[in-house]
Design brief:
The protein has 237 residues and is mainly α. It contains ten helices and no strands.
């Protein structure tokens, strides 16, 4: 029989595996790859805002490359979260012959968050990546669709109102940990659907992710305050 310390060590190794998988997948930067294919091996980080993300690809390369960039950034986090789920299921149910939905969900969160970290600081591209919006959105959708609905509603309302992607992204990043806490607290914790430790862990993870995206948007925040941030202009390229 496996003792408690061994179980804890195996679970921690599983969480570490989730983090590594997420980071390595996140480091595959779609904006850089797509731009090299569509713009004669050019580096998107040398164009426009210098950001390796969908918005800069849209403005500097075109609509189709931007769409492909979004899909790639989105799907890599879907893959990371699913692999995080698989790792924890194998460890808990096959190796330890046990079950813990909260630990499995935690593994999905860890894989997703580290995928965003990999996107922002990609190992394969000198740690200069994007701002993590589409990648974070994928994680939110897969780990908790209830929170995703609130986040995407916030994004759409803001974008329709101002047509500024960065503003919508900033508001979503700020609101994400608040939405996460409220949803889990009222729908899960109060109905004994999760533990206090899980509530605090997930809220902390969402706060970290929201702050990370906000920090990456600090230049956008400065331009918004000065009235220099440009809205998306439809009908071009």
């Amino acid at each position: 029989m496996v003792n408690e310390n061994a179980i804890r060590g195996i679970v921690l190794l599983g969480m570490l595996a989730c983090a590594v998988i997420g980071y390595l997948l996140g480091s595959v930067n779609t904006a850089i790859i797509v731009t090299r294919l569509f713009k004669q091996k050019a580096d998107i980080r040398n164009y426009g805002s210098g950001n390796a993300g969908m918005t800069n690809v849209l403005r500097s390369v075109g609509k189709l490359p931007a769409l492909l960039t979004f899909l790639g950034d989105f799907l890599k986090n879907v893959a990371a979260v699913l692999l995080g789920w698989l790792v924890m299921v194998l460890i808990l149910q096959v190796i330890l012959d046990g079950e813990s939905p909260e630990l499995i969900q935690a593994g999905k969160y860890i894989a997703g968050v580290f995928c965003v970290i990999g996107h922002i600081f990609p190992l394969y591209y000198g740690f200069r990546g994007g701002k993590g919006v589409a990648t974070a959105a994928a994680m939110i959708l897969i780990v908790d669709w209830r929170v995703f609905l609130l986040v995407i509603a916030t994004f759409l309302i803001t974008f329709i109102w101002k047509r500024i992607i960065s503003l919508a992204s900033i508001l979503c990043a700020a609101a994400y940990p608040v939405y996460t806490f409220l949803i889990i607290y009222f729908f899960d914790y109060r109905s004994d659907g999760c533990s206090l430790g899980y509530l605090l862990f997930i809220t902390g993870v969402s706060l970290f992710l929201g702050l990370l995206v906000l920090i990456k948007h600090r230049s956008n925040i400065g331009r918004l305050r000065r009235g220099e941030e440009k809205p998306v202009a439809f009908g071009k390229k």
